[in-house]
Amino acid sequence: MGYQRPNRDRDEIDEVLAAALRRARGRGAYLWLGLAIVLVLWLASGFYVVQPSENGLVRTFGRHTATTSPGISYRLPYPIQQVDVVDVQNIRRTEIGFRSTSVTTEAGRRVLEEALMLTKDENIVEVGLLVQYRVKDPAAYVFNIQDPDGVLATTAEVALRSAVGQMPIDDVITERRADVQENTRSLMVQMLDSYNSGILVTDVRLQVADAPDQVRDAFHEVVRAREDRERVINEAQAYREDILPRARGEARQTIEAAAAFREERVRLARGDSARFLSILQEYRLAPAVTRERMHLEALERVLANVDKIVIDGSAGSGVLPLLQLPVGGVVSPQQSAAPQQSPGSQAPAPTAAPAPSPTPRPAPTAAAKPGGR
Q: Rounded to an integer, what distance in angstroms lies between the CA atom of residue 337 and that of residue 326?
């Protein structure tokens, strides 16, 4: 029997190599499966979501290549492409001269390095400014400026100092606060547009504008004195505006009353003159009758409240011819038709007026009736 050991070792080696090859083939399959899973996950990482108030900025090897709208989008995975998501709808804010203690409160800690400014009349004033803004161009906001919020804060401070430096302290604190806001806003817009920052300033509001603490009380006294002066001036103007039209109205009323009185007196004088001329004309025609009528009219005016009976002086005894003049000088038809009786006579006597005569005769006498009748 011969020696067979070498062949048997070779067979064992072949078996070991075959088993190792089989194991390597199994591991390779797992490796390829793992690589495939990693590749799928790497490709799936390219999906991203943009919210309704946002825009997505796609960068390919660092260069901006696309802007995506809200929704689900896809990009090539990192490091080929990257996405920067920017909120373009929400209002942001920055503060100059103060820091709010919370988002909902305006009053906060003062920052005197930013708040103290020099006015046109070389006075120091403490000013706090609130700026509200949003992103109008996300690409310019992200790629044109390294620190957009910091640049905005610096621009707002520069614009505010420029606006305050062009006005005296009184205008900044009291009278022209709105002008300070508007000038600051316009200068900020001009500077940010020159930077192509992609920022839209929506509102600029002064939160505080006052003198420094060291001189605040004295300055407030001066301001109150000026306000009192303005108040007194306004009251004086109001009194003037009230009294002058009233005086003009009273003067006009007096002038109108004088003109009316003058017109009345002139018309009365003209009427009296015309009446006198008419009486004169009648007197020239019948002097005796006119004198008697004027006498009776005078008696009627003097004895207006007394019942009067006119008796002809030439009448004899017996029935007396009477002319009864009642109060007011008006004789009613019943009185003119009623018969008059003399004392001691039972028969009624007619009433008759004395007939005019061209010759002079004794003046009639007037007597009051006994008992006031």
A: 14
67 backbone dihedrals φ, ψ, rounded to 5°: -125, 125
| C-alpha torsion 315→316→320→326, nearest 10 | 40
* Closest listed residue to residue 354, CA positions, set 266, 288, 260, 287: 288
Q: Whole domain around residue 358: which residue ranges?
A: 304-339+349-372
In a domain, 190, yes or no: yes
Whether residue 167 sits in one domain with residue 156 = yes
pLDDT tens for 276-325 read 898 888 888 888 888 888 888 888 888 888 877 777 666 555 665 555 55
pTM of the model: 0.52
Residues 132 and 31 occupy one common structural domain: no
Same domain, 82 and 166: no
Residue 346 neighbours by CB under 8 Å, 6+ apart? none
The distance of Cα 150 from the centroid of its chain, to the nearest Å, equals 39
Neighbour-count burial of 125, counting CB atoms closer than 10 A to its CB (0-12 exposed, 13-18 middle, 19+ buried): buried
165 vs 116: CA distance, rounded Å: 11
User: Mean pLDDT of all residues in the chain?
Assistant: 77
CATH number of the CATH domain containing 175? 3.30.479.30
Q: Tell me, yes or no, whether 27 lies in a domain.
A: yes
Which residues are CB-neighbours of 307 under 8 A, at least 6 positions away?
324, 325, 326, 327, 368, 369, 372, 373
Q: How many domains does the chain have?
A: 4
Assess contact for 77 and 53: CB atoms under 8 A.
no
Question: Which 8-state DSSP code applies to residue 213?
Answer: G
Whether residue 97 is predicted with pLDDT greater than 80 in this model: the reply is yes
Show the tokens assigned to 315.
């009448």
